[in-house]
Write a structure and sequence with these properties.
Layout: E1 2-10, H1 14-32, E2 35-40, H2 45-51, H3 57-64, E3 68-73, H4 88-99, E4 103-109, H5 122-125, E5 130-136, E6 146-149, E7 152-155, H6 161-176, E8 181-186, H7 192-205, E9 212-217, H8 218-227, E10 234-237, H9 239-252, E11 260-264, E12 271-274, H10 291-304, H11 308-323, E13 326-327, E14 337-338, H12 341-351
Parallel strand pairs: 1-2, 1-3, 3-12, 5-10, 8-9, 8-10, 13-14
Antiparallel strand pairs: 4-5, 4-11, 6-7, 11-12
Helix pairs in contact: 1-10, 1-12, 6-7, 8-9, 10-11, 11-12
Bound molecules: nicotinamide-adenine-dinucleotide (NAD).
């Protein structure tokens, strides 16, 4: 199979982790007889430096013309003072909106080899951590009007029934393929948008009688994720709540560097990226964990290219890396062998069967 992949290396650790993911994809291509063509796309701070714009139309078009997009991360202190609509992260929001990828899927699963890396007590980890956060990605407060007038600033949180329904259905469909439990997370005791969210979730629940729907307020959910994460199967929530809860969920699995994500809309063309940022504190030091990005590439194979066997091969290679006692700095523990970003990628490639 031939697939065209748009590659956004971005800023900070982005170029380092994406290089390792591409090398892994090339190994898979060689072993399984595929051709992956890569188109380099500038987005984020590097695009601001080059074009004065975090995502020029010509760069967005390269993504829209591809079969899928692999992204490292964007942003960094250098661009902190540029105006809001020109910040590196604005490029990312424009990309997500331009691709129409409204559904962001973020797994929170602990690798058994990393049980010690979780900050939670062993008794909690032993009950199991394996859930998915389905986050609405192109609506809500991140996409509402942002305004500062004098000493007052406002950000508008808007959701329509149709926006809630389409992400709600993804939540139910995702739960249907798993343990059939869907937890809808909102703040309906305070927000009108959350009351609408809850109403729509319960209306569409009638179409999924095999899935058990529950409701949870977001503040309680933040607490429950650390108290007893084993209770969750699939969480569906709006954009900002999902952003915050998924970072929390990632940390209880050991490290933010381990977690991939997929973002999909109406077509098979998806956006695949690790959930972490550009980690300026470790950029250029060969310290970054590339596994979240490599797992994102595996998700691309599974969800956009229908290459489940190849995706399994990558995930098994990562498991073998951990089994052999290798760890990057962020997941390092006593008795393990610490490796840098490059070496981590090399070992994973060598493990691909
Ligand atoms: P971050 O996720 O970049 O870093 C948080 C902490 O996690 C840091 O200590 C970092 O070293 C560590 N970390 C992150 N990824 C790691 C990896 N792969 N391996 C090892 N350690 C890792 O979050 P931040 O520091 O709040 O943000 C830094 C920049 O990234 C900001 O400009 C922010 O806006 C941007 N950002 C971008 C994205 C994105 O591109 N999708 C997401 C979040 C933040």
């Amino acid at each position: 199979m031939t697939k065209n992949i748009a590659v956004i290396r971005g800023d900070g650790i982005g170029p380092e982790i994406v290089s390792e993911a591409i090398s892994v994809l090339d190994t898979v291509a060689d072993l399984y007889g595929h051709t992956f063509n890569y188109t380099e796309v500038d987005m984020g701070g590097c695009a601001i430096d080059k074009y004065g714009d975090p995502l020029p139309e010509s760069e967005l078009k390269k993504c829209l013309d591809s079969d899928s997009v692999l992204l490292g991360a964007v942003g960094g202190n250098k661009w902190n003072d540029v105006p809001g609509n020109m910040r590196p992260e604005k490029g990312l929001l424009r990309l997500r909106a331009g691709m129409g990828v409204y559904s962001n899927n973020r797994p929170a699963k602990i690798w058994h080899q990393l049980a010690d890396a979780s900050p939670l007590k062993k008794s909690i980890v032993d009950k199991g951590i394996d859930f998915i956060i389905v986050r609405e990605l192109i609506g809500g407060i991140y996409f509402g009007e942002h305004k500062t007038e004098g000493d007052t600033a406002t950000d508008l949180l808007v959701y329509s029934e149709s926006e809630i329904e389409r992400i709600g259905r993804i939540g139910f469909e995702t739960a249907r393929k798993r343990r059939k439990k869907l937890c809808s997370v909102e703040k309906s005791n305070v927000l009108d948008s959350s009351r609408l969210w809850k109403k729509v979730m319960h209306r569409i629940a009638a179409d999924y009688p095999d899935v058990e729907l529950s409701d949870m307020l977001v503040d309680n959910c933040a607490m429950q994720i650390v108290k007893d994460p084993s209770q969750f199967d699939v969480i569906v929530t709006e954009n900002m709540f999902g952003d915050i809860l998924s970072d929390e969920a990632s940390q209880i699995t050991g490290s933010i560097g381990m977690i991939p994500s997929s973002s999909l809309g109406a077509s098979d063309c998806g956006l695949y990226e690790p959930i972490h940022g550009s980690a300026p504190d470790i950029a250029g030091k060969d310290k970054a964990n590339p596994i979240g990005t490599i797992l994102s590439a595996a998700m691309m194979l599974r969800f956009s290219f229908d290459m489940a066997i190849e995706a399994d091969a990558i995930e098994n290679a990562i498991s073998a890396f951990l089994d052999a006692g290798y760890r990057t700095a962020d997941i390092m523990s006593d008795g393990m062998t610490q490796v840098g970003c490059k070496r981590c990628g090399e070992i994973i490639r060598a493990n691909i069967k």
